[in-house]
Amino acid sequence: MDAKETVLKVLGDSPEPLKAGDIAQKKGLDKKEVDNVSVPCLGKN
């Protein structure tokens, strides 16, 4: 799974918004790698 897929999965599974550092820590990614991922707004209503 590439970084973008990983970030999208973590954001989709999380009940609250996450910062790049939180995502990196949860999945063992480098924060710079997470920062380089461009994702659409995933606002939950």
Helix tally equals: 3
Q: List segments where confidence is low: pLDDT < 50 over at least 5 consecutive residues.
A: none
Amino-to-carboxy terminus distance: 28 Å
The overall strand count is 0
> Could you estimate the helical fraction of the residues in percent?
40-55%
Tell me which oligomeric state these chains represent. Answer: single chain
SSE order? HHH
Q: How many strands, which pairing sense, and closed or not: the largest β-sheet?
A: none
**Structural class of the secondary elements?**
mainly alpha
Could you outline the blueprint of secondary structure elements for this entry?
Blueprint: H1 3-13, H2 20-27, H3 31-35
Structure commentary:
It is a single chain. The chain is mainly alpha-helical. It has one domain (3-35). It is 53% helix and 0% strand. The protein contains 3 helices and no strands. The protein has helices at 3-13, 20-27, 31-35. The longest helix has 11 residues, at 3-13. The protein is globular and about 25 Å long. The N and C termini lie far apart (28 Å).
